[in-house]
Specification:
A two-stranded antiparallel sheet has the order 1-2. The chain has helices spanning 11-15, 38-50; strands at residues 20-22, 29-31. The protein has a single domain (1-59), classed as 2-Layer Sandwich (Alpha-Beta Plaits). By secondary structure, it is α+β, with helices and mostly antiparallel strands. Strand 1 (20-22) and strand 2 (29-31) form a beta hairpin. The model has no long low-confidence stretch (mean pLDDT 94).
């Protein structure tokens, strides 16, 4: 995740709210869970795919 590229679209927080949130001050992504469990990993990957700024990378 690279907050510098984030444009604050919020797709990550909508797609995977247990993993991502938005900073109330600037609207950019906040990482809540750096190592999501296996059942959350698919949501993290989907959030990365939906990110319009490609600010999220999930291995």
């Amino acid at each position: 995740m690279d907050r510098e590229y984030c444009v604050g679209a919020g797709m990550c927080a909508l797609t995977a709210p247990d993993i991502f949130d938005q900073d109330p001050d600037d609207g950019r992504v906040l990482l809540l869970d750096a190592r999501p469990s296996a059942h959350r990993h698919a949501a993290a990957r989907q959030a990365a795919q939906l990110c319009p700024a490609e600010a999220i990378a999930v291995p």
